[in-house]
Amino acid sequence: MTDFNKAIKDLEKLDFKGMFGDDFFLTWEKSEDELKAVWAVADALRALRERNISTKVFDSGLGISLFRDNSTRTRFSFASACNLLGLEVQDLDEGKSQIAHGETVRETANMISFMADVIGIRDDMYIGKGNAYMHAVADAVKEGNEDGVLEQRPNLVNLQCDIDHPTQCMADAAHIINEFGGLENLKGKKIAMTWAYSPSYGKPLSVPQGVIGLFTRLGMEVVLAHPEGYEVMPEVEEVAKKNAQASGGSFRRTNSMEDAFKDADIVYPKSWAPFAAMEKRTNLYGEGDMEGIKKLEKELLEQNAQHKDWACTEDMMKLTKDGKALYLHCLPADITGVSCDEGEVDATVFDRYRVPLYKEASYKPYVIAAMIFLSKFQDPVGLLKELEEKGTKRVLR
Amino acid sequence: MTDFNKAIKDLEKLDFKGMFGDDFFLTWEKSEDELKAVWAVADALRALRERNISTKVFDSGLGISLFRDNSTRTRFSFASACNLLGLEVQDLDEGKSQIAHGETVRETANMISFMADVIGIRDDMYIGKGNAYMHAVADAVKEGNEDGVLEQRPNLVNLQCDIDHPTQCMADAAHIINEFGGLENLKGKKIAMTWAYSPSYGKPLSVPQGVIGLFTRLGMEVVLAHPEGYEVMPEVEEVAKKNAQASGGSFRRTNSMEDAFKDADIVYPKSWAPFAAMEKRTNLYGEGDMEGIKKLEKELLEQNAQHKDWACTEDMMKLTKDGKALYLHCLPADITGVSCDEGEVDATVFDRYRVPLYKEASYKPYVIAAMIFLSKFQDPVGLLKELEEKGTKRVLR
Amino acid sequence: MTDFNKAIKDLEKLDFKGMFGDDFFLTWEKSEDELKAVWAVADALRALRERNISTKVFDSGLGISLFRDNSTRTRFSFASACNLLGLEVQDLDEGKSQIAHGETVRETANMISFMADVIGIRDDMYIGKGNAYMHAVADAVKEGNEDGVLEQRPNLVNLQCDIDHPTQCMADAAHIINEFGGLENLKGKKIAMTWAYSPSYGKPLSVPQGVIGLFTRLGMEVVLAHPEGYEVMPEVEEVAKKNAQASGGSFRRTNSMEDAFKDADIVYPKSWAPFAAMEKRTNLYGEGDMEGIKKLEKELLEQNAQHKDWACTEDMMKLTKDGKALYLHCLPADITGVSCDEGEVDATVFDRYRVPLYKEASYKPYVIAAMIFLSKFQDPVGLLKELEEKGTKRVLR
C-alpha cells in the first residue's frame, strides 16, 4: 500500500507554486522540488485509489489528446489519468503525415478547447518539430484564455516529443525510487542508459534523452553508451552534464556497452535512431522526398545490423552489480526469440524482470494525473486532504 | 461575465413549451420565442460554468454523434455540450461513401439508442438527403420509444444538413447579439452574406442558407450576394423572403459583392458550391459515376477560378459601415497567403477579427447544450435555478 | 414497467457467490442459479433506470473494449452497459488482420488495464482462437493483479467468441422469458434454431452454438436444423445433449427446416458458415494464403446458394404452433427484398416481429451490465437495495 501521509508530508516541504497554471514540457525546465511534487502527488493519488477513495476533482470537463502517431499505451495512460480526475477524454488524431503549423495550429487549438482543462500531446517523430508544436498549441490556448475566447486555460502535458519523454522518465524514476527505497538512496547509483540492437528502424530519441536529462539530477552516475554514429541531441548532453555537476552525480558517454554495464545498479538498454539521421529524415519529409526516405531507412537498418552485439544478454547482465542490476524498459521491448529473431534483450532476462517492468509502467497514469493536478490546483495539499476526509468511494461496496 | 439573472428573466417571458420532447432540425421550424430560449439557456449555462458551477443534469446517459463526413470542430462542439450536461459521447462513423436508408436506418437508430438521450447528426454532403436522413432517424427512435423499445426518446440535434446549419447560425447570431449589445439592436442592421472565392471545391450550402433563413427573422437587412450560377436552394430563399416580411427586415439577392458590402454592419464572405451542381453531384454519387464526379469537380474549380475577385480584401472592407463591419466566418477560412494563395479573405482582415471569430465559435457548444436542455426538460427555468442554488463546483477548489 | 421487487426476491433465493471476481466466458460454465442471477440483476437495473434512478456504482474507472472485428451494435451495447454503471469506455481496435499472441497479449492486457474494472472482448472470426485469446487476456490481468501490477482485477465479459455469444443468447433468453411470462413457462416449449440462406459469407457460429448451449438448460425442446455440411462444433452439440438431459428438455439435430418449424413455439432462422469451413479459413489465414481464402469464399457462396429454400417465409411460419411462433434474430437479418434479393426471412414476417425483435436487442446492455455487476460486487442484493433507497436521479427533473 502506498503511504498517503508520507506523500502529504513530502509535499508540505516542497515549493511547487510555479506549477500552478503552467504546462509540463521538459523535466529540466522544472525545479527539483517540482519534480518531487509530481512523485508525491502521484503517490498520494495512488494511495487514495488503493483505499477505494475517489480522486474525481472535476465534475465535468475534457482532457484532449493529440497524437501525431499511433499509440495504444500512451493513449490509455492519458485516458486513465483523466478518468481518475474526472475528465472525459476526446482524441484528436491528425495523422502522422501532416505537420500542421501556424494559423491552423492556433485555430484548431482554440476550437477544440472550449471545455478543455488539459491537453496531452504526443509528437515525437520529427526533430525540431514536436516540442515546438506543443509550444505553439500551449501559446495558442494561453492567448485564447487571455483574450476571453476560452473560459479556462487548458494546461499542456508533453506525452512525448522529439526532445524529452517526461511522463515516461518520471514514471521510470518513480519506479527506481520505490525499488531502492527512496530518492536519497539513488545518490551514487550507476545507471547504464545504453543503445541496443533492434531490427526496426527510427525509434525516437526521447527516452535516452529524457533519461540522461532526468537521472543526472538525482545524484546518480549516469553513463550513456552507444555505438559511434548513434549520438543523441548535443543540447541534451549539455543539459545532462550541467545537471550532474549541480546534483553531485556524474555523466559520461562511452562507445562500449560493457563499460556502461560494468557494476551498474540499473540498466536501460534500448534502441534508438541516430540524431543526425532523424534530422535528415525530418528534412526529407519536409521536402516530400519519399525516395530519399526509403533510401535512408535502408541505410539505417544496415547500420543497425552492424551492432547486433549490443544486446542485453545474460552475459552482459553478469557484468552488472552482483549480476543483479535492475533492468528498465519503456516497453514494448524487442525480445530475442520472442518478438524478433535478434533484439534488445534476451528472453530470460526480460522474463526475470517482467513484474518490475509492468510496475514501472504502472506509474505513468499517476505521473500524468499528478502533472495535471499540480497545474490545475493552487492548493494541492489541501485538496488531497479534503479528498481523503470526504472519502467518497470510487466503487460503491 | 455572462449575466445569469438576465438570462432567467428573458426565459420567464418566453413560450417554448413546444421544444420539450422535440427535435431541432431547422431554425425556421421554430418560433421566435423558441430561438430566444436557446440563446437564453445558452447564456445561463455559460454563466454557471463561468462561476464554476456544475451544469451536469445527467448522472449517466449517452449522446450519440453520427457523422457522415470528417469533422473535428463539430465533433468537439457536440462532445463539449454533452460533457457539460453529463452525457457521455459515443461516435458512430458511417463513412461518407455509404448512404444508408430505409430498414437499416430504422434498425441502427434503435440499436444504438437504448441508453441515448440525444443524437447529433451531421450529414451535409448530399442535396435532398441529409435532412431527410435526420428525419428518418428521429422518426425511428420516436417510434421505438412509443413501442416500448426505448425507455426514453432520444432527441435529435441537426449538426449540419443539406438545408440548414442551425447550431452554427444560432452561434453566429448569439455572437452578433452580444457584439451589438442585444437582439433589439440588430433591427435594421445590414448583413452581407456573400460568396467568396476558394480554391477548394464543393463546400456545403448550409451556412449561407442557414444565415439567410435565420437573420431575416431578426429584423435585419439581409443581402445575399454571389456570382451568377451560385444560387442557393430556392425554397430557402422563399423562407428568407417570408421571414423578412414578418420581422420588418428585408431580404434581397445581388450579383455584386460591392453592392452587398456597401454600408454593411456585418459581412459573412464564404465560399459555397452552386446548388444545382451539388444536386448533380448527389445524383452522380447515387449512380456511382466517379468519372462524372471527377469531371464535375474540374468544371466547378474552373468556374470558381473565374471569380477570384470575390474576396474580402481591405479595399472591400472599406466599403462597409465606417469601414468597420463585423467580419463573420464559420471557420476554417481560406486566408489569402496563409492557407492558400488566393482565398476568401485577406490575412490582415482575418487577423484583425481573429478574437471575435474565435468568440463566435465559442457559442456553439453552449447553443448545442441549450438545444439539448430545452428538448429534455419540462421546466428549464426551474432546473437552472436549482443548479445555481445547489452550486455544485465543476472543479473542486 | 419492470418489477424491481420481484428481481430482488429472485436474487435472494439464488446462489451466485462464484461469480464475484470471476469472468464470463461461456454460459455452460455457469450454474443455473448464476444465469438466473444475470437475468434478475438485468431486470433490477432496468427497473431502476425506468424509474429514473441512477445505477452508477463506479465513480470512476474504465471499461475496456477490444474488438477484433468491426462492430457497431456490440460496441454500443457494451458502452451503454458501462455508462449505466459509471465506467468510461476506452476502445482498443487491433484490426482483424492481426492475431496477437503470447508475450504481446500479456503485456498489452496489463498496459491498458491500470484503471480498468472490466474488459469486453469480441473475437469471433477464427475457430479455436477467439475464446483462447480471451482466456489469455483474462489470465494476464489476473496474474497482473496478483503480482501487484494492477490494483484491481479487471473482469472479462465475452462479447462474442468462436464458441459462444453469451451476451446475445442471454438477451435472447431474457426476451423469451418475458414474452412467455416466466422461465417456468419455457419448459417443454419447442425452439427451432435453424440455418437460413444468406447471400453473404462466413457468418460466425457463435449464435447457433450459444442458443443450443443455453436453451437446452431451460427444459426446452431444442431442435437444431441445417442443410448437410453446415455442422456446428461437435463439442457444443455434446454440451447441448448433456444440458437437455439434465434439464428435462431435449436436443436433436435435423436436416429439415420443416421438421424444425413444425409446431415450434419459437423460431430462430439465421445463416452461419459450416464449422469445418471456418476452421479451414482460420488455417488459411494463419498461413497467409489469400488465394486459398478467396477460393474458399467462392465455394462457400456457391454452397450457400444451393440452399435458398432455407428461408423463414410466410409458408414456413404457418407450420409453427398456431402459425404464430415467436421469431427471434440477433440482427441485422438478411431480409428478402429489403436488404438483399433473397435472404433469411420474408419482409412481411420480419415486419410483423420488428417490435419484439428490437425489444430482444434491448436486453443486451442490461445483460452485459448485470454480468459486470455480479463480477464486481460481493453483495449485489444489498447494493441494488441501497441504490433504490438512495434514489439518486439519473436525469435531474
TrEMBL record, chains A, B, C:
PANTHER family assigned to the protein according to its UniProt record, in alphabetical order: ORNITHINE CARBAMOYLTRANSFERASE, MITOCHONDRIAL (PTHR45753), ORNITHINE TRANSCARBAMYLASE, MITOCHONDRIAL (PTHR45753:SF3)
Pfam families per UniProt: OTCace, OTCace_N
Ranges where the Aspartate/ornithine carbamoyltransferase Asp/Orn-binding domain occurs: 211-372
InterPro entries: Asp/Orn_carbamoyltranf_P-bd (IPR006132), Asp/Orn_carbamoylTrfase (IPR006130), Asp/Orn_carbamoylTrfase_sf (IPR036901), Asp_carbamoyltransf_Asp/Orn-bd (IPR006131), Carbamoyltransferase_YgeW (IPR017702)
Protein name (record): Knotted carbamoyltransferase YgeW
Similarity comment text for this entry: Belongs to the aspartate/ornithine carbamoyltransferase superfamily.
Domain Aspartate/ornithine carbamoyltransferase carbamoyl-P binding: from-to ranges: 27-176
Keywords on record: Transferase
Gene label: ygeW
Taxonomic classification: Bacteria, Bacillati, Bacillota, Negativicutes, Veillonellales
Highest taxon of source: Bacteria
SUPFAM superfamilies: Aspartate/ornithine carbamoyltransferase
